[in-house]
Design brief:
This protein has one domain: Rossmann fold. It has a six-stranded parallel β-sheet with strand order 3-2-1-6-7-8, with helices on both faces. The protein is globular. It contains seven helices and eight strands; from the N terminus they run βααβαβββαβαβαβα. The chain is about 30% helix and about 25% strand. Helix 6 links the parallel strand 7 and strand 8. It is an alpha/beta fold. The longest helix has 11 residues.
Length: about 190
């Protein structure tokens, strides 16, 4: 069994906040390599960065563990309806909150390219994400004969993505195996 691990760092950060604990990337690799005849062929981690030095120790630790780390700069995007810039309060009906900014680094294309590239030499993909945008990728990979195991948690995964996967595993049930606070070794990183 040739297995590939792909971690959507942005999606997993919020899923881990929801379950109330953070997984140790080292323990995740060990879990992905478990099982008789399992070969962990590739492990990818995708992360958005505020600047080139953002999360450097964490990214270096991931690389040292064997992850291929893909990054993209975060972008500021306007939020709110209508798509119009302008004042924070405006005409129209009802009250409006001030327009706020949020940052996003969409790495779905990078996930798709990597997983399509390794598909031919893989049997199973462990995808840690909740992104609805990956639904079509999962369908294509399954059509190529790969088994897709999706990891996330209730309320943090798109129904479409969950339905497209072969199996769904709720992170909430993996605390004993993955929680960095329970790790016997020192955690790879400390969140601040």
């Amino acid at each position: 069994m040739r297995r590939v691990l792909a971690v959507d760092g942005h999606s997993m950060f919020y899923a881990q906040q929801k379950v109330g604990w953070f997984f140790d990337p080292r323990r995740l690799l060990a879990l992905a390599a478990e099982g008789e005849g399992v070969e962990l062929c590739s492990a990818f981690w995708y992360a958005g960065l505020k600047d080139p030095t953002d999360q450097r120790p964490f990214r270096d630790a991931l690389t040292g563990l064997g992850y291929t780390v893909r990054t993209k700069p975060l972008r500021e995007l306007p939020s709110g309806g209508g798509g119009h810039g302008g004042g924070s309060h405006g005409g129209g009906s009802g009250e409006h909150e001030p327009q706020r900014q949020f940052t996003r680094a969409n790495l779905d294309v990078e996930v798709a390219i990597d997983l399509l590239c390794v598909a031919e030499r893989s049997d199973e993909i462990w995808l840690l994400s909740g992104s609805r945008d990956l639904e079509r990728l999962v369908e294509v990979l399954r059509a190529q004969g790969l088994r897709i195991v999706l990891f996330s948690t209730e309320g943090m995964v798109a129904r479409e993505l969950r339905n497209a996967a072969d199996r769904f595993v709720d992170l909430a049930g993996l605390k004993a195996k993955l929680d960095k606070a329970d790790a016997q070794q020192q955690p790879v990183f400390n969140r601040t």
